[in-house]
Amino acid sequence: MGVPYPRDMTKRVLVPLAEGFEEMEAVILVDVLRRAGIDVALAGLEGPGPVLGSRGSAVVAEGDWDEAAREPYDAIALPGGLGGTRAMCDDERVVEAVRWNHASGRPTAALCAAPLVLARAGLAEGRALTSHPSVRDDLAAQGAAVRTDRVVRDGVLVTSQGPGTAMEFALALAADLVGQEAADEVSSAMCR
Amino acid sequence: MGVPYPRDMTKRVLVPLAEGFEEMEAVILVDVLRRAGIDVALAGLEGPGPVLGSRGSAVVAEGDWDEAAREPYDAIALPGGLGGTRAMCDDERVVEAVRWNHASGRPTAALCAAPLVLARAGLAEGRALTSHPSVRDDLAAQGAAVRTDRVVRDGVLVTSQGPGTAMEFALALAADLVGQEAADEVSSAMCR
After folding, report:
1. A86–chain B Cβ distance below 8 A for any pair
2. If you measure CA to CA, which chain A residue comes closest to B23?
3. Domain membership flag for residue A185
4. What's the predicted TM-score (pTM) here?
5. Domain total for chain B?
6. Identified catalytic residue from A112, A124, A146, A166
7. Backbone angles phi, psi at A43, to 5 degrees
């Protein structure tokens, strides 16, 4: 289930990929973190191979969730998309990994609809969270203090709103893991 | 090689996918255009199947370039990434399609390093273009009037700078094809 960090100089982030994920959100997360020198495990809940996103594009999961989650990691980052979020909420392996990751003090980041996975793991109650507007009522009903900022932090929880905020969300997580200077360099090279 | 538009109510955009493409740029283009109700042909230069991007993620090309380019289309949109751009510049089928598309008055959009493909098609001379900073000298050497705006239009040519400008670039092309109102709705739903 992973061990506490720091493990070595290279940080490692788990990104689960489930059918119906939002393509921009997953790809922006992975690409930005990799540009920051972070090792990203893009792990399919149903194993390696192509996974269909919410707008009909398929991205290739590079590994299997079980294998990827067996190795040490420093953070979990959850892309949104309603179908992908439902699949993560229904997958006890993901929910348990999120719970454990949080309990061990490591960052958990969730975008768009994916903060519902935090709620499913029991992490919404009394927490400052944001999400896509379409799921904010659900989060509030589970006790979250819903915010409308583009990126919201509460302790080691980082949440954000949608594809349009995905880049700053990914850069915020990168800054937490490898420092603001490295994140700023990535931002600049991407012409933000 | 395509026929002039309008063909019917649904617009169709060709997006070539070549090894070394920038993942965020390709996926943002495809996803945003599809959210605007546009039919996007994500066409592999080496046929359908997974294509490796510049940061190690693979996106699945949904069709073959030759077959996709045989059907009528309304615009061509080129994602960047240096490897993918070189492959497009070296592929006479893409260069010729860009030339023909422009000659027939349809939009051609190029992001990041991909404006080099416009230059290869003879469309840079005297044109206002932008690109990733790393290839601006090359564009200038080929006669382009290089600009530093985030999105630049010169007639039916639309160019932009990198992953950080990809969303507004895709929305600009969507607005050209299906109107500003539709593009604004997409933008709002993405939480920009």
Report:
1. no
2. A27
3. no
4. 0.95
5. 1
6. A112
7. -115, 120
Size of interface A-B (CB pairs under 8 A): 106
Encode B61-82: b = buried (16+ Cβ within 10 Å), e = exposed: bbbbbeebbeeebbbbbbbbbb
In the set B112, B135, B139, B152, the catalytic residue is B112
Residues 6+ away with beta carbon under 8 Å from B7: B72, B74
Structure confidence at residue B59 as a pLDDT band (50, 70, 90): very high
Nearest to B132 among A60, A150, A191 (CB): A191
Average pLDDT of chain B is 95
- Tell if the CB–CB gap between A162 and B191 is shorter than 8 Å: yes
pLDDT tens-digit map of A9-44: 799 999 999 999 999 999 999 999 999 999 999 999
B83: pLDDT strictly greater than 60: yes
* Residue B40: per-residue pLDDT: 98
Residue A17 located in a structural domain: yes
Q: Is residue B4 part of a domain?
A: no
Rg (CA), chain B: 15
The residue that leads in pLDDT, A101 or A7, is A101
Q: Catalytic: A112?
A: yes
Over residues A92-118, the mean pLDDT reads: 98
Cβ separation A57–B28 shorter than 8 A: no
